[in-house]
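Build the 3D complex.
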Amino acid sequence: MGDTQSHHSDPAASKPGAAGFSRRQFLYQLAASGMSFSMLGSFAAGATGHLQPVRVGSPFGQYPNRGWEKVYRDLYHSDSTFTFLCAPNDTHNCLLRAHVKNGVVTRIAPSMAYHKATDLEGNRASQRWDPRCCQKGLALVRRFYGDRRIKRPMVRRGFKQWIDDGMPRDSHTGEVDREKYLQRGKDEWVAVSWDEAFAFSAKALSNIAETYSGEQGQAKLAAQGYDELMVDATKGAGTQVLKFRGGMPALGATRIMAHYRTTNCLALLDSKLRGVGPDEALGARHWDSYTWHTDLPPGHPMVTGQQTVEFDLCNVEHANVIFVWGMNWTTTKMPESHWLTEARMKGAKIVIIACEYSATMNKADDALIVRPGTTPALALGMAQVIINEKLYDEKYVKSHTDLPLLVRMDTSRMLRASEVFADYRQAELTNNLTLLSEGESGPNVLQQPGPVVSSAKRAEWGDHVMWDAQANKPVAVNRDQVSGKFAALGFDPLLDGQVTVTLADGSAVQCRTVFHANRELIDASYSPKQVEKITWAPADAIRRLARLTAANPEKTLFALGMGPNQFFNSDQKDRAVFLVAALTRNVGYLGGNVGSYAGNYRTAFFSGMPQYTSEDPFDVETDPNKAVRTRTCYRAESAHFFNAGDRILRMGKHSLTGKTHLPTPTKSIMISNSNSLIGNAKGHYDNVVNSYPRVEFIGVSDWWWTASCEYADVVYPVDSWAEFKYPDLTISVTNPFLYVFPATPLPRIHDTRSDIEVMAGVCGALAKLTGDTRFNDMWKFVKEGQARPYLQRILDASNATRGYRLEDLEARAAEGAPAILQTRTYPKWGGYEQAHEDKPWYTKTGRLEFYREEQEFLDSGENMVLHREPIDSTFYEPNVIVAAAHPLLRPKRPEDYGVPSAQIDADTRQARHVIRTVEELLATSHPLKKDGYNLIFHTPKYRHGAHTTPVDLDIIAVWFGPFGDMHRRDKRTPFVSEMYVDIHPLDARDLGVHDGDYVYIDADPKDRPFKGWQDKPEWYKVARLLARARYYPGTPRGVTRMWHNAYASTWGSVHGSQTDPTGLAKNPATHYQAMFRTGSQQSCTRAWLKPTWLTDTLTVKGIYGQKITQGFVADAHCANGAPREAIVKITRAEAGGLNGEGLWWPAEQGMRPTYETDAMKKYFAGGFVG
Amino acid sequence: MPKRYNWQLDREMEYTYDGAPPKRQVAYIFDTNKCIACQTCTVACKTCWTSGKGQEHIFWNNVETKPYGGYPVGWDKNLLEKTQPAKWDGQKLTSLTIFETDGPNKQPVGYRPKPEDYASPNLGEDEVAGMAELGQHFDGTHPMWMFYLARICNHCDHPACVAACPRKAIYKREEDGIVLVDQERCRGYQECVEACPYKKVFYNVINRASEKCIGCYPRVEQGDVALCVESCIGKIRMHGFLTTDGPPREDNPLDYIVKIRKLALPFYAQHGTGPNVYYIPPLHVPNGFLEQMFGPNVEAAKELYRQLAYDKRLLGALLLFGASSRIITRFEVQGEEAVGWDVDDAEVARVPFTEPVYHRPHYDQKHAVYRHNTA
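Done.
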């Protein structure tokens, strides 16, 4: 061996040899097959290079043929590079460097320049921030040039026909003929010019607004069967039935926010249609974002009065203990994962709580596997131990929380000082509060030192009462007296007790402290033994974690993820975790805090956003250097109501939807950057089959043909991040940076435009249609090719960005560096002012509140902190309050709404307030269990997709689980990979399901995959979930899992898989590529509405600036969903072996769980060591 | 057959060729405790090097979940079944390597994967040995476990691919020890594919040649780390050179971590190839499996890792992982910072042990604005 001569005496002539054809033929074939130039180059080098045989001595010495190495140097070479920002709503925001060769982006790399980020004072980030990127961002080279890029504006044929026919409608109801014009999903597509796309859109918007304007318009809506409260909510303005949504608007301050600017300027249309002036004119409605994604932790505003508390994830290195709670950190916060593992290196203890052995759990020092949806009880169990063992920080609790305040036992309300003390005069509040008298608008956001509220509201709040334990008398306490300012008072309130208070009118009333009320409930219901029964977590583990937390005040961080957030009891999880954190002095500190990590929502950092979204359309400012006058003409509502069938929450005949939350009927939808709204919505198929046919126009802007495009009427092709011609801005909740999306030098690959140009174009067409040129003025700078004036206005007007010049930010971004946000600290963390500066929270009491006195909470039995069972994902009776009897627990019974308690269907469950003790609960079962629905099915997010971006690229999809195969040997496989359900091997065996088999997964047949599926077999075939089963030993028995990040089956993809001989699940008309044969993970989910998320009474700070308001605030207090809830039945469909024969091959080979060969078992045990 | 000293086995070993070691040896450290299996390394490699036809299923770099995962499927277990169980006498291997098993002048023991073994590159992702139970609570060594193993070519001291190639089309570069398959000379016999114990040489059916990780030599030649290293957001990787012309140097982070502190261990060293990707073993996995994979020093390495908080120099070296695109050839801990220099002795990394914290005043006079954290 080692001979220098091969069998081929003339390598130049014969390579590649074995097949016996010549190099020339081979090169020809390569060229014909479209092989890349770069690889061709390697052969070209060979062909022109060493034609003489080479003699090699030792392969360790001087190798004689090194010249060939040039091949890879050439392949590596780039002609030029540029930076762009990758921001698919994953909170990271990576500035990436694109390498260009021959005008084409060939690869992408991290910018390695985050350490150049500075703030206005010159403080600088370190190299510990580099690199920032992930596999999805680097794979984008295949998405910029992929076959699902939308190459030109597309219009659905039936929609075009409707426009061409003059937009005919039923004369009575105003409805559009569904059979003729609304065959979405099945219809053909027509390529049109941009001008035509804009003209069609403007005609549709205008026609819909006109149709539903005035009393006649409202009558039509009523005739179509919409809820009367929803019809009333339009106030007769037809523009109010037009809905807009930019997908996570924080991700595009002008580009995505352009949708919101449009909603406002549609007041011009209303003004024309109804003949009303600027004061009365209403714009369109925009849908929520953070709450639509069920990302809001709804209990945060209930405890703190503001949207969310969180901390930059790098802060974990300041903690001793890090709870990773229902958060699959390493798969969803990838670029921040090293902070966690490095904190561990430096000695922090990582505690991971999940309902499976999660991907993150292999980093755990302490791990706990719990029953899904039960962590409110887990936290309450910890609280019980902390209270019972007196491990809480009494001083902190008394000065920072409402726990020492008194509650009246008769009314269940907080006791007010005015009730106790005769002629009580409310204190003048001076601690960081700005009070506004009637009609006063107050300082602009830049000059707001802290919370701003109306004097009337402050008067309603009143002052509260504590009991002086020493003097044995009530004491008035006001909102200013928190933290150090409370301590300075020098009195020691009763924390745990009940007292009789003599009121000013002479009557006596029984009162308890909030601490006592909650403590009694917790003691009776959530002892570690009881919590073990609810959660499966061993009582000893609960005690241990409680003691660990209490031993680390200011040094325990709670990072909560999307897992528990996507349950119906999400707010209870927040309230309970805050209680544990508050008891142990772990709120608002660098190393001790609570954070919620779902979504990227902090548009609040752009507090000057109204400069863009609320510019007065009747008085447009066209001087780029001047600030604008604002006028808010749009209204916001939650998209969850549309998702719920365009209905509100009613129990019996009672509306449980707060007036401030009421939606209008939805007749038009325009979205951008948002596959979550249509294509990957919970209850997707119910929307497709039952809700979209009531919508008359759907316009979708995207740069990739998603499932949302499949069901649109007009699809607007927009620039990819690599082709931006307009710069834009964004921020992040998990890191401290301010980002620019740079405009790039890459020429547009297709006939695309910017998102902002799409909105400008639609408004331009409205200007033509209405003759109102103000529609054009609103987009004057865009028409001149500019977004910069809008961006600079936002920077100038926002607290965290004022001082930055856009040009500077763009120059840094071009080098790959962001800037640092000008918040109070770097890194940033919520609750800083409250923990360190004696400032009140945004609540009525100024304290962290653990008692909710508002009527909606009393009626729901949620005035105290407690646990409710999940609403669908439970083996037991769903959504019951799990608690012992308590004198303050007096919810409305179903009968109070005229509904029998025995009625337990999914819709009714939403407001069914039935109380069970822990022991009673365990004796119940889910109503569908008797029919074989006995597996919890949850749908978390995962590492191979940021939502659905870019899961349908081959080099990503092939890693997406175990069923990847680039060559698609099994023709049933919808793509080079496919979605699967993770099931415990023993559960699968009980069902007769083998590893790799195809299974059907069915949820509640009453409403899933869509209501009325029994009568629509052709749609049922599209919607019923069929997927592979994977034996997954990491989920406990009874719990199954399917990732959220997959492209759903559509009518077209199912049609494609059945007609294409290769079986590829690709829509032949649109190239849409599904990762399922039929259905999707959303076949098993649905919309859910919770009464305490729909109140008119909760005190909560608005999004922009410091103003405190009440009731509905989009993205802070509104409907929030429960998309992780489902209990399912799984049945075997087909064998997993090649083309349906026998076992799936890895199982056949003994490589799989429960199929292991002896050698495999020996390998696991380390048996190959002598 | 010549004898070569294999330091990982603490003994001489029969090998096909003799030859001096390279002037310096390219080497990598992968910290499994930090790996998150994001596959960013995989895609960074794929998009630059293996995007051509015939390379669809080829991933020079991959990350697999142990114990169920393997790309190609079952690669390590399959070889273990064909070789002697590893026997260690202290640091010395007493069992036979793949070069010795079948006797002198024979091909190294190996096997050739079937084409379908390259499908399902992520088979076994996240799957644990053992089964999760309701309400399980554990710490220390996990009762059920898995961990992520990032894999590239090991650029071995004694490569099996080099030994197996009938055309001597594979060589080890004398300047940096990178092992390359000469794409001009290779005739696609696939002996290297069969011999490589790590299955990191691949056959390209379009080129009809074998190919493998090139150690990103066009970057290494410029002093830059490999693409898989640069893009590693878990910051699990350090790329550099082991000293071959003298004793290990304290200020060379590779020497320091691998040879002086022995925190990072060679991977299936018992096969005898002298692999140069060194792994810090995962803390939570039982030692039996780990010793089969990383040899006899697993527990000692784990203990070092557990004590990192008190081992400033070692911790400093580890915090330099991922800090720079430049190869760090020298490092120091200066106060609360770790500092690294490149081959030109330019400072290329300066990382704080803890990211600094800056406070700003409530009212910013200069810009006339209140600043808030609670926005």
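Residues 510 and 792 of chain A are 58 Å apart (CA to CA).
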